[in-house]
Amino acid sequence: MAPEWVYNLPITSKVDVYSYGIVLLEMVIGKSLNVMHTAENGEIREHKRLVMLVRENVNIGTTTKKSWIEEIIYPMLTNNYDMANMELLVKVALQCVAEDKDERPTMTQVVKMLMSHED
Asked: What is the 3-state secondary structure (H, E, C) of 68-95?
Protein backbone atom coordinates (compact mmCIF):
# COMPACT_ATOMS: atom_id res chain seq x y z
CA MET A 1 0.00 0.00 0.00
CA ALA A 2 1.39 3.35 -1.02
CA PRO A 3 2.22 5.80 1.77
CA GLU A 4 -0.42 8.19 0.43
CA TRP A 5 -3.17 5.79 1.51
CA VAL A 6 -1.72 5.34 4.98
CA TYR A 7 -1.21 9.04 5.64
CA ASN A 8 -4.48 10.16 4.02
CA LEU A 9 -2.66 12.19 1.35
CA PRO A 10 -4.13 13.05 -2.05
CA ILE A 11 -4.32 9.96 -4.27
CA THR A 12 -2.75 10.22 -7.72
CA SER A 13 -1.64 7.81 -10.42
CA LYS A 14 1.64 7.49 -8.53
CA VAL A 15 -0.20 5.13 -6.16
CA ASP A 16 -0.49 2.69 -9.06
CA VAL A 17 3.20 3.12 -9.82
CA TYR A 18 4.00 2.21 -6.21
CA SER A 19 1.83 -0.90 -6.43
CA TYR A 20 3.48 -1.91 -9.68
CA GLY A 21 6.89 -1.62 -8.03
CA ILE A 22 5.77 -3.85 -5.17
CA VAL A 23 4.45 -6.45 -7.64
CA LEU A 24 7.76 -6.39 -9.53
CA LEU A 25 9.71 -6.90 -6.32
CA GLU A 26 7.42 -9.73 -5.25
CA MET A 27 7.94 -11.49 -8.57
CA VAL A 28 11.71 -11.09 -8.51
CA ILE A 29 12.12 -12.09 -4.88
CA GLY A 30 9.39 -14.70 -4.84
CA LYS A 31 7.73 -13.39 -1.68
CA SER A 32 4.18 -12.18 -1.43
CA LEU A 33 3.01 -9.31 0.71
CA ASN A 34 -0.64 -10.32 0.85
CA VAL A 35 -0.43 -10.27 4.63
CA MET A 36 0.56 -6.79 5.70
CA HIS A 37 1.45 -5.69 9.20
CA THR A 38 0.86 -2.12 10.27
CA ALA A 39 3.05 -0.49 12.90
CA GLU A 40 1.58 1.70 15.63
CA ASN A 41 2.26 4.85 13.62
CA GLY A 42 0.43 3.40 10.60
CA GLU A 43 3.48 2.56 8.51
CA ILE A 44 3.33 -0.53 6.37
CA ARG A 45 6.24 -2.52 7.78
CA GLU A 46 6.21 -5.49 5.41
CA HIS A 47 6.49 -3.33 2.31
CA LYS A 48 9.25 -1.29 3.89
CA ARG A 49 11.06 -4.42 4.99
CA LEU A 50 10.98 -5.84 1.45
CA VAL A 51 12.12 -2.58 -0.10
CA MET A 52 14.87 -2.12 2.50
CA LEU A 53 16.12 -5.67 1.92
CA VAL A 54 16.44 -5.08 -1.79
CA ARG A 55 17.94 -1.59 -1.42
CA GLU A 56 20.53 -2.86 1.04
CA ASN A 57 21.61 -5.59 -1.36
CA VAL A 58 21.76 -3.17 -4.30
CA ASN A 59 23.66 -0.50 -2.35
CA ILE A 60 26.35 -2.73 -0.89
CA GLY A 61 29.37 -1.52 -2.78
CA THR A 62 31.65 -4.39 -1.86
CA THR A 63 29.76 -7.03 -3.81
CA THR A 64 29.56 -7.58 -7.52
CA LYS A 65 26.41 -7.02 -9.53
CA LYS A 66 26.03 -10.76 -10.00
CA SER A 67 26.18 -11.48 -6.29
CA TRP A 68 23.61 -8.87 -5.21
CA ILE A 69 21.21 -10.08 -7.87
CA GLU A 70 21.74 -13.69 -6.85
CA GLU A 71 21.24 -12.66 -3.22
CA ILE A 72 17.73 -11.33 -3.78
CA ILE A 73 16.40 -13.37 -6.72
CA TYR A 74 13.81 -16.06 -6.07
CA PRO A 75 15.85 -19.29 -5.75
CA MET A 76 13.42 -21.28 -7.92
CA LEU A 77 14.59 -19.26 -10.93
CA THR A 78 17.88 -21.21 -10.69
CA ASN A 79 19.96 -18.85 -12.82
CA ASN A 80 17.38 -19.15 -15.58
CA TYR A 81 17.26 -15.41 -16.23
CA ASP A 82 19.16 -12.67 -17.99
CA MET A 83 21.28 -10.81 -15.44
CA ALA A 84 20.93 -7.40 -17.14
CA ASN A 85 17.15 -7.72 -17.42
CA MET A 86 16.85 -8.73 -13.79
CA GLU A 87 18.99 -5.78 -12.71
CA LEU A 88 16.77 -3.45 -14.73
CA LEU A 89 13.60 -4.89 -13.18
CA VAL A 90 14.96 -4.39 -9.68
CA LYS A 91 16.13 -0.84 -10.32
CA VAL A 92 12.84 0.15 -11.95
CA ALA A 93 10.91 -1.43 -9.07
CA LEU A 94 12.96 0.51 -6.52
CA GLN A 95 12.22 3.77 -8.32
CA CYS A 96 8.53 2.90 -8.32
CA VAL A 97 8.41 2.36 -4.56
CA ALA A 98 10.05 5.64 -3.59
CA GLU A 99 8.44 7.01 -0.41
CA ASP A 100 7.95 10.45 -1.97
CA LYS A 101 5.42 10.22 -4.79
CA ASP A 102 7.22 12.99 -6.67
CA GLU A 103 10.33 10.80 -6.87
CA ARG A 104 8.42 7.95 -8.53
CA PRO A 105 8.38 7.73 -12.31
CA THR A 106 5.15 7.87 -14.27
CA MET A 107 3.89 4.63 -15.79
CA THR A 108 4.89 6.01 -19.20
CA GLN A 109 8.44 6.45 -17.91
CA VAL A 110 8.38 2.94 -16.44
CA VAL A 111 7.36 1.49 -19.81
CA LYS A 112 10.11 3.46 -21.56
CA MET A 113 12.72 2.23 -19.06
CA LEU A 114 11.64 -1.37 -19.54
CA MET A 115 11.41 -1.07 -23.33
CA SER A 116 14.82 0.60 -23.60
CA HIS A 117 16.43 -2.67 -22.59
CA GLU A 118 14.50 -4.79 -25.06
CA ASP A 119 16.60 -6.31 -27.84
From this structure: HHHHHCCHHHCCCCCHHHHHHHHHHHHH
Can you tell me the distance from the alpha carbon of 107 to that of 119, in angstroms, rounded to the nearest whole number? 21
Q: What per-residue confidence (pLDDT) applies to 37? A: 45
Low-confidence stretches of the chain (pLDDT < 50) are 35-38, 61-62
> By the 8 A CB rule, do 94 and 50 touch?
no
Give CA–CA dist 82/118, Å, rounded.
12
Q: What angle do CA 74, 76, 63 make, to 5 degrees?
A: 45
Domains of the chain with CATH codes: 3-115 (1.10.510.10)
